[in-house]
Amino acid sequence: MKLSYIAENRIEENRPEKERHSPLLSQGSELTDTELLEKLDSFGIKISKKILNKLSREFTSAEELSKWFFKKSNLQSKYTTDMEIKRVWIWLTVLWERWFPKRINYEMVDDRMAYGYDELDDYNVISGCEILLCVWYDVLKIMKKRDIKTLEEFDEKFRGTYPVSNMENDLEDELWNAGIENKKYLKKRISFCRDFLKRFPEEDSFRIENFKCAIAESYLQLGKFRKANRLYKKWLRQDPGWGEGWVRWSDCFWQSYGDEDGINDLDRAESILKQGLAVVDVRDRPAILDKLWSVYNEKRDSDKADEIQKEIDELEDEETNYIGASQKIIPRTHKKIPRNKPCPCGSGKKYKKCCGNEITQTEEKGVGS
User: Fold this and answer.
1) Most buried one in 126, 137, 171, 304, CB count within 10 A?
2) How many of the other CB atoms lie within 10 Å of CB of 189?
3) Smallest Cα–Cα separation from 165: which of 153, 148, 152, 176?
4) Is residue 217 part of a domain?
5) 110 and 195: one domain?
6) What is the DSSP letter of 154?
7) 104 within 8 A of 141, measured Cβ to Cβ
8) How far, in Å, CA of 295 to CA of 7, rounded?
9) Domain hosting residue 164, numbered range
10) Within this chain, do residues 123 and 159 fall inside the same structural domain, yes or no?
């Protein structure tokens, strides 16, 4: 998929000056309104604030508008190269953003998204989340205005530096990190995820399930154990085959989340995992078994842990026979750290995004087996 002009411009801006081959948006930003209008007029484009006000309501991006101008018959054929269209795009983009900064277009979305990611890269997680939340609502406005139904459809039209279908996953994750600093961002995370599920119920199941878990773990972190417990009950009644759901529900009862009812009730965690294993064709069965092994290990019930390890090994052998490659599940000899709890190293990140990620990569490579 060809990148948009704004994404190409971002790449060009980051190149050394001698390696640049296209006009830059930053150069257009140095021009006055009068100079911009004169340059557009030299291409036969008569524009004014009144005209741009009307056109900016009809088009979603300055790129779309600039290409539309070049399709008009009154423009001379020598001005039809991509380089010249980009020049017109630069001038129109600058005027649009100066005159109508609240009329969001794709270029503004791309710029603001890039700024949000820059903040996250600089470890300004709260600032980055606030920016990306604003971007998200800008995207929703455009989708409503243009009757765009899915994020994939939006990305096909947007063609930006960062796909919006990836940004929403990143935003969900970073809102957790922001919530470590300020609990109000856990509430924002809940609202964001609930809104997403309501708006996009037909998204892929992995994304839907991930957002459900994000809602529940945020409630747990806020000390609302009963709320999270009720949600998992509801979701698993609707989809009992959701293996990861059984795993995450069991976590409520043997990790230090929520009120005292949700701490170290290993018997309840065991019961939940057994319910999951009893579901015919439950998804992610190895993950449920792995968690149950951890529960028995925590309870110091070595006999039952050995039984579970035996079933894990049998599943591994079956997978080897069908796929021809073993992905051994390595038994743990230490206390299990929840993937979505803060990493004990003190980084402030989730365990799964920090030290837990390094352990997972090591296991996948078979190191220590």
Assistant:
1) 171
2) 26
3) 152
4) no
5) yes
6) H
7) yes
8) 49
9) 104-203
10) yes
Determine the 3-state secondary structure of 295 from DSSP. Answer: helix
| Structural contact between residues 290 and 297, judged by C-beta atoms closer than 8 angstroms | no
Q: Which of 57, 79, 103 is the last residue of a domain?
A: 103
Q: Are residues 277 and 232 in the same domain?
A: yes
Q: Which spans in the chain are helix H?
A: 5-13, 25-28, 33-42, 49-58, 62-71, 82-99, 106-121, 125-146, 151-158, 164-181, 184-199, 205-221, 225-238, 243-251, 266-277, 285-298, 302-323, 355-365
Cα angle 159-171-96, degrees, rounded to a multiple of 5:
45
Residues 6+ apart with CB under 8 A from 202: 150
Give the three-state DSSP class for 301: coil
pLDDT, tens only, 43-64: 889 999 999 999 999 999 999 9
- Provide the 3-class DSSP secondary structure of residue 263: coil
**pLDDT at position 265, please?**
86
224 DSSP assignment: -
For 317-367, the DSSP string reads: HHHHHHHS---PPPPP-SPPPPTTSBPTTSSSSBGGGTHHHHHHHHHHHTT
Is the distance from CB of 4 to CB of 156 less than 8 angstroms?
no
Phi-psi region of 118 (alpha: psi -120 to 50; beta: other; left: phi over 0): alpha
CB-CB contact of 289 with 305 (8 Å) = no
- CA 271 – CA 165 distance, rounded (Å): 37
* Length of the chain, in residues: 369
- Write down the pTM of the prediction: 0.79
Q: Please, are residues 254 and 269 in contact by the beta-carbon 8 Å criterion? A: yes
Which residue in 46, 32, 162 sits closest to 106, CA to CA? 162
Dihedral (Cα; 228, 233, 237, 242), 10-degree rounding:
60
To 10 degrees, the CA torsion angle through 294, 295, 301, 305?
A: -40
Count how many domains the chain has.
4
